[in-house]
Amino acid sequence: MKGLNSNGSVSCSLKRKRPPKIEIPNVLREISGDAFKGFGAQLQDDGDVCYTESGVGVFSTKGKKKFMEDSHKIYSSSNGNKGFFGVYDGHGGSRAAEFVADNLHLNILQVLENSSDYKEKEEAIKEGFLKTDEQFLKQGLGSGACCVTALIEGNEIVVSNLGDCRAVLCRDGIAEPLTTDHRPTQVVERRRIEDKGGYVEFHRGTWRVHGTLAVSRSIGDAHLKNWVMAEPDTKVIHLTPDMQYLVLASDGLWDKVSNQEVIDILMHSCSIGMKGSSPYPCPSPRPISKSPRISLGKSRRIIHPTSHKMFNVPPNTSDEDALYSENRSPPSKSRRVSLVKQMKIKTHFPNNNENEDVEKPAYGGLVATCKELVDLAVTRGSLDDITVMIIDLNHYKCSNI
């Protein structure tokens, strides 16, 4: 542009304009990276989330939805004698699951602390769920969330659930479901909905409340609140020496992998860790020989790491040799790689030699087992978000001695 200097001469200068600010659509702001800060979670390059600390591991992956709608929460008291764990499966958006992860444990613990007569824990949990539902409905958002939680204090475990998230206990290698899925197909749930003037309709391959929602209980879902309640089922159990692990997971896992299969894979992974085959063994596993599912006779059964099928092997044979001899022939190259791939990946680290690749463990301990279960559900066709949390109950039994 041209202009006059103080001496009256004409000068020319070029002035660069600031580019316009890029407006990011609100829909792209639905999931923020900040949501993963402060909880010990690690956001992977592929969008997966993993978390590990003493006594618990989590692995979460996004399905075919546009946005990740699962969330989870781990809370431990400063003295280590109380822990709260939750897995939350959102639908219709991620807002409900995120809200529940931020508030449910606080509401439950507040009810327990402010109760003069220290209410029954079942009632405190119920009040905490209903309060969280009430708070979320005031946000004016339309999404909802199924929940499964576990409160461990002293020698008690209080397990609660809404919807189709599930808790399964590992007791001496046997799967023991602690929750019942809340679905419109249940006689009690369907009758409750119809008694309140609602209806259940078959749509898109499953029975749904008013033809839209495939669960009969949840937090949120304001448009169906008259029929889809937020009152959880709660069970209190006492920790005993035969209790080993507690698995909390969203329905993305349970729709494809059975309760006992989950426990079989968990026990097998920890047995490998005991033998030193894994760089990060599962913490405090009970000897697998004590499981009633493991034969102490002339042969034993192991699980194939890819097909997860059980087969007999002779005694004094390593698991690796047993897998190689399953078909009485040497393994193919792809098969050998698949056995190693579960524990190791090649990762590039910038250092003095930019072309050097360093091999390091990918996942360890309970997180590795969580990931193995997630991967199995995916290979079997799960399109849903999947979150798996495994709690080592031995850790809490030791801390309460």
TrEMBL record:
One of its GO terms (molecular function) is protein serine/threonine phosphatase activity. Residues 308-335 are annotated as: Disordered. Keywords: Hydrolase, Magnesium, Manganese, Metal-binding, Protein phosphatase. Residues 55-393 form the PPM-type phosphatase domain. It comes from the Eukaryota. It holds the Pfam family PP2C. Its EC number is 3.1.3.16. Its cofactor is Mg(2+); Mn(2+). Belongs to the PP2C family. This is protein-serine/threonine phosphatase. It comes from Penstemon smallii. The lineage of its organism: Eukaryota, Viridiplantae, Streptophyta, Embryophyta, Tracheophyta.
